[in-house]
Amino acid sequence: MHLLFPLIACLLLSLLPHSLSYNLPLLCHQEERVALMHFKDSFIIQNYSVCGLSTDYPKEVASWRVEGNNTNCCAWDGVECNQDTGHVIALNLSRSCLYGSITSNSSLFRLLHLQNLTLANNDFNHSQIPSEIGNLSSLTHLDLSYSQFSGQIPSAIQYLSKLSFLSLYSYYDNYGLYTKNLASLVQNLTNLETLDFFGINISSTVPESLANLSSLKLLALSNCSLYGQFPTRIFHLPHLQKLDVWSNEDLTGHLPEFHTNSPLKYLYLDGTNFSGNLPASIGNLNSLTSFTIYNCNFSGTIPNSFSNLTQLTTLDLSANPFNDLSWLTRVSSNDILPQFGFLGLAHLNLTKLPDILRNQSKLEYLDLEGNNLQGLIPKWMHNVSKESLQNFYISNNFLTGIENSPTIISWPNLKYFAVDDNMMHGSLPIPPFTIYLQYEFT
Known about the structure:
Layout: H1 4-20, H2 30-41, E1 44-45, E2 79-81, E3 88-92, E4 98-99, E5 116-118, E6 141-143, E7 151-152, E8 165-167, E9 177-178, H3 182-186, E10 194-196, E11 218-220, E12 227-229, E13 242-244, E14 250-253, E15 266-268, E16 273-277, E17 290-292, E18 297-301, E19 314-316, E20 322-324, H4 326-329, E21 342-344, E22 365-367, E23 374-377, E24 391-393, E25 398-402, E26 416-418, E27 436-438
Parallel strand pairs: 3-5, 5-6, 6-8, 7-9, 8-10, 10-11, 11-13, 12-14, 13-15, 14-16, 15-17, 16-18, 17-19, 18-20, 19-21, 21-22, 22-24, 23-25, 24-26, 26-27
Antiparallel strand pairs: 1-4, 2-3
């Protein structure tokens, strides 16, 4: 019995440091603290107003100090450390008003345990992304979007094989980012779930090998000067939820047959040269919430299977040479249709307001510009999305007035009403003071 007490005491003492460690603040490594301070000191931290941010921006980099009680870099704003090792594993300095360049000898590249590097929405003064970024081989998340980088994207990114998130979202201009070989840049990034290259000058065809990135959930290649045929296999990536390739006017392609198990939610093809018929199987995309094909070259029939897309809230069919618009114009009171928030039906050669509008109660944005609408705006239109409509564009038609025109405009929350370039005569309803009214009379 007397021997039992020493054993219990030893056991309790052995557990004491372990239990106390949960209550002690995690301390960072000195060399990483020094690296962080050198990185911070290599930039000018601009005034909030200069960098266009409000005073509640999230990262207080200016508060980093190596003095007093503030020496623990694991407690600094924007820094995260591994709970067991104390190594810096995440650096999130988005919207921190940093101004300057990241050089090849930057102390940033001494943070070899980094898994998450987010430097979005800063101003790196059109400097290049150093090839040393490839030394951060533990990275799973790299976000350098909206940060004024320029020049060629370093091929060293291909060595970041653990990446699941890569965003270099850029402004396409003479100072922007570009890549000469998208295929080789991403071929080893087989864990990618997000690839956002919006605005990067790629100037090539879309590599077929992108269809091998089977973990992709988001692929954004808008405004990239892509051309040639878009690989249809990409539409069938098993986890793809968002495909965004708008504003690539020389990019051609067609929509494939869709399966019922497709996870696609957002499909943006505006301003491309996609053509052909919309397949009836588009009605199998049960998760689809946004489908925009403004200014493409689709033709034929708008399939009735659109009625199956009950989750669809954004639809823009504008400026396509369809020859059968009956899904829009021949709607019965028994039809169950999606409830849209955004509906673009401009430049479709409509001759009357489409019946599909009659059942819409949630519209915020409606565009009917540039059709062949004639006569009066019908009285039933007064009740369409009465409480929600904010933007209504009906310019460049042949409308002559409003049937049973009310004294005050029918939509109390309307902010923009474009009715110019019609054949209107007489008076229009009185708009609220907050509205921008664009009109002219004949």
